[in-house]
Amino acid sequence: MARNCLQAAELTTSGRPVLLPTEIECSLLSAVDLECEDLPNFPHLKSGLLILTTHRLLWLPESTAASSASAIPLAAITHIFSAKKSIKSMFASPRLRFQLSVSPDGRVSDSGSGSRSVVVTVVIRGKGDLDAFLNKLWDSWRGRAWEIVHEQAGSDVASGSGSSSGMYTREGAVRMVGVSGILRKEQEMWESTDKSLQDAFQDLNALMLADFVRLPLERSGGMMNLIDIYCLFNRARGTELISPEDLLQACSLWEKFDVPVMLRKFDSGVMVIQNKSHSDEEVFGRIKTLVTKPDALRTGISASDAAITLGIAPGMAKEHLLTAESKGLLCRDISPDGFRFYVNLFPEIDPNDMFSVKDYGIYSTWLRAACASG
């Protein structure tokens, strides 16, 4: 049915399109529908692969049936419509439209000299970058590589040159020729400058976050949850909010600079911001002092108890307690009331003489506290 309207595209045995001389693939989209309400004989093309080349638009079905692969010459396209951005488009499949020149009987020709025009709609059902594909379609259509090839074919044969012709090299790069080459070179220069400026602004933003968190960290004992920093920072910015990804990217850049703060990720996956002067050994020492108090030896401590001692949020205190447990300093008991942490007495027990009672060390202190409570 495709032959009634579109040209048939030749495929290899593996299902790949057979390209024309000097034709180069530029981009592709998956799960694509092609629709045209103006032509009753337009083929039923659903959920296929759309390949953009320097010469054609190729639609390949999910199966490798060569008879159902279709081609639209770029020379037959007379106009490409800009993608419309609206609230409705946010909840629908992305679409792009172009105008196609056809003959009176509805056939698409290579020359594009048809008697009337129809509108073809490309519906993207899968995941794909519509804007990038549209930009490359504009570049290929304006480049008109098929015309350059025809113009230079005779001179190449006469001179015996075997080099590739047209505005594309054999490697697929665009040749810098004529006014279009100058404009393309200038565009590449601006894109490079824009990227450099973007990197510079990212570095500047990283430094400004680093400067913002100093005071909140001092008030929080040198460590804060990344989520709390995100809320504080956006509250201070008012309406100029940042996304969580922006904050995480800025914090990740701190390693490049000599700033007094750093991003840390606990084993549980919780991410925090802490001062570089923060010492886990100092925290462990304060936790050990807390758990060896007589009351703590009998009943253990909670995250809230550690938070009061360390001067930090309970969530951060719990992460410190879990880290101390992984180091062998604490033991954990889980009950309906939550987590309780106790000093680890196992290192003081001699496996060869388990029933001996020592009169020194933490084990002796725990024994006296247990007897006093009884």
From TrEMBL:
It is found in: Cytoplasm; Endosome. GO terms for cellular component: ESCRT II complex; late endosome membrane. Keywords: Coiled coil, Cytoplasm, Endosome, Protein transport, Transport. GO terms for biological process: protein transport to vacuole involved in ubiquitin-dependent protein catabolic process via the multivesicular body sorting pathway. GO terms for molecular function: phosphatidylinositol-3-phosphate binding; ubiquitin binding. InterPro entries: GLUE_dom, PH-like_dom_sf, Snf8/Vps36, Vps36, WH-like_DNA-bd_sf, WH_DNA-bd_sf. Residues 9-153 form the GLUE N-terminal domain. Its main location: cytoplasm. Component of the ESCRT-II complex (endosomal sorting complex required for transport II), which is required for multivesicular body (MVB) formation and sorting of endosomal cargo proteins into MVBs. Component of the endosomal sorting complex required for transport II (ESCRT-II). Belongs to the VPS36 family. This is Vacuolar protein-sorting-associated protein 36. It comes from Prunus persica (Peach). The lineage of its organism: Eukaryota, Viridiplantae, Streptophyta, Embryophyta, Tracheophyta.
